[in-house]
Amino acid sequence: MRKLWDFPGGIHPPQHKSQSNSQPIRFAGLPQKLILPLQQHIGSPAETRVAVGTTVLKGECLAAAIGTLGVPVHAPTSGKIEAISRQPVPHPSGMVDWCITLIPDGLDTWCERRAMPDYAHHPRPEVLARIRDAGVVGLGGAGFPIHIKLQPPERDKVETLILNGAECEPYITADDVLMRERATEVVEGLNIMAWLLEPAHCVIAVEDNKPEAIAALRAAAEDTLIEIVVIPTKYPSGGEKQLIQIVTGLEVPHGGIPADIGTMCQNVGTAVAVYRAIHHGEPLISRITSITGHAVTTPGNVEAYLGTPVADLLRQAGLQTDRLDRLILGGPMMGYTLQSADVPVIKTTNCVIAAARGELPEPPPEQPCIRCGACSEACPMELLPQQLFWYAKAEEFEKAEHQNLFDCIECGACSYVCPSSIPLVQYYRFAKGEIRAHNAEQLKSDRARERFEARQARLERERGEKEARREERARTAAEAQAKKAEQSGNSDGPALDDRAAKTAAVQAALARKEQKAQQPLTAAQSPDETTEPDIASLEKQLSQAQDKLATMVAMLEEAQTSGADNADKLERAVAKNTERVKRAEEALSAARNEAIQPETTPPSG
Amino acid sequence: MTLRQQSSPHTRGARSTAHIMLWVIVATLPGLIVQTIFFGWGNLINVAWCIALAIGAEAAVLRLRQRPLKFYLSDNTAALTGLLLGLALPPFTPWWVSAVAVIAAIVMAKQLYGGLGSNPFNPAMVGYALVLISFPVAMTTNWAAPAGLFQGAPGFLETLGLIAAGKQTAIDAYTMATPLDVYKHDIGALVAEEVRQHPSFGTGVAKGWEWVNLGFLAGGLVLLYLKIITWHIPVSVLAALVVMSLAFGSNQDLYAPLSLHLLAGATILGAFFIATDPVSAATSHQGKLIYGAGIGLLLYVIRTWGSYPDAVAFAVLLMNFAVPFIDHYTPPRTYGHNKARRGIASKSAG
How would CATH label the architecture of A136-282? Predict the structure, then answer.
């Protein structure tokens, strides 16, 4: 008998499980259409591999895995792709995301399945690839890709592999019925994981409120080394960190993963998915979901194809719309409310609660915190929820972080017991969101500052280089000057000091500038000008001046006829422009003469 | 069809602040009943008067603060403060002394700090300490003699009349100093045996008082059983008192004996009902232990070497001062952490 540990805190909310676990699993059938979100897991969304109008077979890959954490999405049945569009997906915010809409053809024709029952004779990476290609993710809620989880870092050796069948949330019985009816598949799936990880111990942990499941698992695990561990019913025993603590007495280090302490948790449903992927070559295309709550007449568990609209399942279970108060996806402790039932079942959808009015009543108004400490007595993570609440409310996020806000698993035990009905978890989510936003902002401004500083440094460097070049030029000019002076014999000596060189350079520069300034006027009149007058540009100047003059003359005429005030002003402008045109004409003709001369009379050398 | 949107969790336990306060009120009843049996109607009248005044004062301030009356008054906390004062004040306390205590407790110590949950000091003890310092005569001479000691203890109307008359001192025949007071003053000149001849002691520890304390102990155990309080504060208060008494006061001819410390004053009421006020107490288990031990220690120090025979109010208030400090250094170790993160958040960025 394995020694069990307790975890601190925890609560015992009413179970409400008998509503849904008294019936066997029912197959939900083919809906009118299946809506398959491209992201049903943690990681990058899958990339579409089919076009609208394509006919696909059951099990065919519709969207391929992208990135390390990616997993593909498969066709749950055969049919035709109707659309690839943005549709409402199950998310607390009620957001829309990219989905593939598949219209079933009713034939349910499988594609070719590649089973691998002899997996033990294959290399491990091949088996892991097969699991990934089957789109298997953690079915317990987070949707973490299993092929990644099954490859822990080299340094971490998994000693204890725990299959999580605790299902501690009220209402949910999907894992319960799965373990009752498919215990052999659970065990087979565990065997595959155990073969991959080679742990010293394999444990299936089940809360003691599921005697049928425990009996079924015991029967299925007979003659194996798998231990069926019955744990006391206490929420949140199914939390990964809590379950590890119950089974091994160890704590997952802050910021670490279970494999760091030689443990790993997998959901029982995930084990079945792994079994089906390896032994039958079937990708993850359906899951078991509890449809429960007082607003449905026949609550129970259904096996639904992924993509089946929740509304269809509710209709099948006899939804009484007039009694419906709210729809919860997941359990009453950690699930989230849906804005409409038009979202599909995805890989992580374990429960839909159609709560009738008064079933899960609205909490009374929030009262002041009296620091009674009921929350810290209930906290399984040994936090001080009342302190975190004060800090979150006062927006003292630094202090909240210091008090380990980010270790909060949002199980809701604190809110459950709070006598002042303070929505504590909501405060923590707010604080976490603010801190994340602040950190992102900080990162952004840090990057902006780095960029700015880099730019400043570059400009500084460029200025320095420019300066150096200028000095270089000045020195060359001075040397040239000195040389010239020496040659002409005017110089005092060959050794010109720096200052003289500079003065010379400055004078040279000034002279150049003067020349430049005079150039437009004197270009044509100075045949000894070193640069050749550009005939083309002069022609352009002339035509521009002529155009302008024409316009001005027209304006002047108009002004004179209408008797406007600016007539005399325009008159002066016309005179000026006429002068300019004349000068330009002269310049052009001079330049033309100049241009012809050098050709005919070669320069004397 | 509009579906209700709410953040998880979607369900909650049945317990409410009003229920908790009501349970605390109910848990004081055994003590109150025994008090009435041994010391007459005084405490019962005080309790009624203080509760009525507390609710009235709370309502008045809520009105000034423009807060909804029904929502806040129905949390039963004002009534509890009034009740605790009514239990703690001497049975023949003049009405106006009680009134000062209650108004100071509700208006100053509670509402001026922001109302329920925001008060750093235990409101009832602020009120009590204020009148103890301001009206020492009224607060020391109005303790009732245990019934049966004097034949014909005052009846209900007579007691009501005495309280309503508002005189600083009631009729000598009905009153008597508390056993702790007697012991403290007489032990200087007498030996223990002689001190115990005083009529306030009787044959047991301290006539009447021991039963009152046991009555409060019974109520306190109910609170523990209902998990309204945890064991940390009462146990550490009593443990510190025991340790101090055994360490310093084992000589009964010099100091009050341990039995008297535990059962003759307001020790049990203080340990289970007053020090456990969650608003003004320390937060974590470790913090509660330190907080409680501090109260027990101060209780003994003030009773033995200070000038007050009982010291629950001062001990509790002094430790209330220390609560923010204690809280900073006693957070629990969170799951997955090697050790608790003590102290305040460092200012370093990132």
Answer: 3-Layer(aba) Sandwich (3.40)
